[in-house]
Amino acid sequence: MRWVLDVTVEKILVFAQPGDGSGIDIDIVFFNSKDxxxxxxxxxxxxxxxxxxxxxxxxxxxxxxxAMRIAASFETLFSYICFIGAPYYxxxxxxxxxxxxxxxxxxxxxxxxxxxxxxxxSLLRYRYPFFLPLVSIGLLGCLxxxxxxxxxxxxxxx
Length: 158
Fold this sequence. Notes:
Elements: H1 2-11, H2 33-49, H3 63-83, H4 86-92, H5 97-116, H6 120-126, H7 128-157
Helix pairs in contact: 2-5, 3-7, 4-7, 5-7
């Protein structure tokens, strides 16, 4: 199994235009399976949380690119807020194997995309099918926490 992964890793090519401002970790090259495993935490960070706040309002090469960065910043901020509810939702539904399967598939694909797509704009578009279920899980948790908070406020008011 290891040789299959090593052969696959050798076949991966990274394409990015240096200096376009939206490349992320373009200097990273994987030489073996150990490199991939060591990069997984960073790949998850990129897959879940990019674009990062340091480029939200940075000027891009084109005015359209700058507008897209600003639009992406609101979307990213919304997802950050939604992720706050994910631990609560998962703790309440920890025996639901389907949810964990969805999370595993989504995190796996986000990691794969983050390792193979060095352009944040492209990554933002490619990751949607696997990113939105995670945001939705977090949003469900936030809504449940809101309902609990409202019930406690109503009890306190009585």
